[in-house]
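Entry for the shared binder. Reason: the reviewer on the internal report wants the predicted structure included alongside the sequence.
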Amino acid sequence: MAAALSVESLRPDVDLKYSEQSAIEHVVHAGDFVSRAGLSTYTDGYAKIPQRWINAYLGPRHADGRRRVRGKISGNSVIEGDLLLHFAGNGLTKRERMTTFMDMLSSNSGAWEKELVKTKYPTEIAKFWAALTQENGKPESELSDMGANDDVR
């Protein structure tokens, strides 16, 4: 993490579209440092988890959380029971979306606040680790779309 946070100061020539996110990506793939373990990149020491676990977006939903009629939930779209929702944007637009969603949540929290065992996380995490530890593993695209359209218990 320290290497990623130093990119902006020590590598001003690196274009960081999303600040910390882009810096982490740069450090993982650039190969312009040597670690104590003698590795020149972090590519051998990280695993890419499904985006929805830590950075889910509203996706094809209205600001109050209702699904759009023709919207398809993708691998990074928030689903009921998720632990984190990313409100993209800035300024008034972001604030309005957050306020609308929080108003809905305060009157209808049961649909969104679930015990861990009633979410997709236990099954998805087990599948993720099983795939990661298999000799050949699953393709990255299969892992990133994990659970997007599965039913929750």
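Summary line for the report: The two ends are 36 Å apart (CA to CA).
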